[in-house]
């Protein structure tokens, strides 16, 4: 896309006239020509002023549209602007940054690649209640679903397919039914949260792999966090229950050795794969690519990236680079390097050698160009964002801009589930926790998620809310990256079982987590990005069920948040409020809660300072001992190593201190651990 046009005037200068004319004469001639041109223009504009209908050939198309009578000021002003421009002799060069020329610049229109501008629209966005589904749509009536799949779906209590599944599943199955050298187009699917994207890729890959003879890793599903990977693993395992396919979950929640045992086996000096489908996080995948002998991806048929925009945004140990070198030995690389095959011969040679890439997300539309890092093969986009492709006439102009102003605007638009109601509540910053408490009490929400922007805030808010809810039946807990994987799993389980009513979360878990029947999702702090908002509110109103999302805003935040929503074609929603005298009503308990928090923070500060001092003292003591024991002084490297190990110990104990607020009452025992650590380090140095 061209952003600027720079005209270089070179022609006449390059061709000096032959004979007696020197360069000076030539320049004079050019100057004459330019002055003539300027005079000609002046004449033209004088004429246009007379007839009061200016010819605006230099203006952008929308500016050149006939002016209505309601805007007389512009009609008079535009010729004036043009006349003023003529005062400076034109030299046919476009001066960058020049104010006059900037006014003339044509509006730069976003030109999407064809595959983004012409998506396949997923029809039937609203998920109908089960009772209203016609018999013809029941899963056993769908001829593309195998019996084993229907059986598994029935066990999962699924009676019909959702729109995204109805569209994507047959498409993938059909694409793979075509003979060589046909290569299926890679696909990107952008559909709202809770619309059933997991089954949309799980069903076809399980069906297409179920007839395999030898067990090899043929499908790799990559998800951003361990909790999500576990969730998808469960769905795939349930689908595979009626087949011979083996599924394996790789995530940091398990020991690497245990996973290695599940992945491969060594028989008579040769490694064999024990699994067909691998569900993993990017980080863990890289660990196995480096450390697991026999973990082979050369037979990969499907590469599925869920929450694709999130995964492509983050670096995640450069996982794509590592994956690339492990997939297929072909001349054209999977994820980087040469272009996708263009001619028949290339297509034939690459047939079956590259995995079919399937990308899914609810917010894929932010910057789909990023996905090009994956070298998608003739990608196809499936989306529920309802905008028609731009229809251009032969001159490249939009044929009907008035009737369809949103045409072709896929990028930057998001859809939330139709069943979601969005609301907001305006409050003061100092009263936010109290407002949150009052809202839960007023609406009697028994299952809610409350999002904050950081783990520290999640931890503090949980503390205050626990104190506020002390005398009620409502129980809240923290669910953030602060906690260990096990603690997070436990919190989610307790919430699902109804032992906890509210989870106060950081955004680490805003994506993809599927917990049934959440009454309301609360945003305690305004999300920094619109994508975060879409994923937060998407934890409710899932699978066709109704849900509510409430954002707590201060007066100032309200303006910024409204803009954030408007930019993607959304509105603030309905305003709700709590009684204005909540402050008086709950004054005592709020004061009590805040005092508690203050004490806790002071204690934490004290603990940290004491710990730091203790660690420093230990390091000093140790150094002295070392100098006594060994005659020789420590080398620089040894000193650095000791320092690093002490620092590491310090960071570790700090982390433990932060992540286990409930254990803070127990006496810290860092002395022994640190001694051991230093001793171990020294042993290593000496060895
Ligand atoms: N055909 C179906 N019938 C009934 N329930 C379904 C169907 N498909 C999926 N579900 C249920 O809908 C819920 C949401 O599905 P899923 O997690 O796949 O959504 P998603 O589109 O991936 O959402 P997100 O973008 O938030 O990750 C799940 O509880 C799932 O069991």
TrEMBL record:
Keywords: ATP-binding, Helicase, Hydrolase, Nucleotide-binding, RNA-binding. SUPFAM superfamilies: P-loop containing nucleoside triphosphate hydrolases (SSF52540). Residues 1-98, 649-687 are annotated as: Disordered. Its EC number is 3.6.4.13. PROSITE patterns: DEAD_ATP_HELICASE (PS00039), HELICASE_ATP_BIND_1 (PS51192), HELICASE_CTER (PS51194). The keyword ATP-binding applies. InterPro entries: DEAD/DEAH_box_helicase_dom (IPR011545), Helicase_ATP-bd (IPR014001), Helicase_C-like (IPR001650), P-loop_NTPase (IPR027417), RNA-helicase_DEAD-box_CS (IPR000629). It catalyses: ATP + H2O = ADP + phosphate + H(+). It holds the Pfam family DEAD. Residues 178-382 form the Helicase ATP-binding domain. Residues 662-678 have a biased composition (Basic residues). It comes from the Eukaryota. The keyword ATP-binding applies. The Q motif is unique to and characteristic of the DEAD box family of RNA helicases and controls ATP binding and hydrolysis. RNA helicase. Belongs to the DEAD box helicase family. This is ATP-dependent RNA helicase. The gene is Dbp73D.
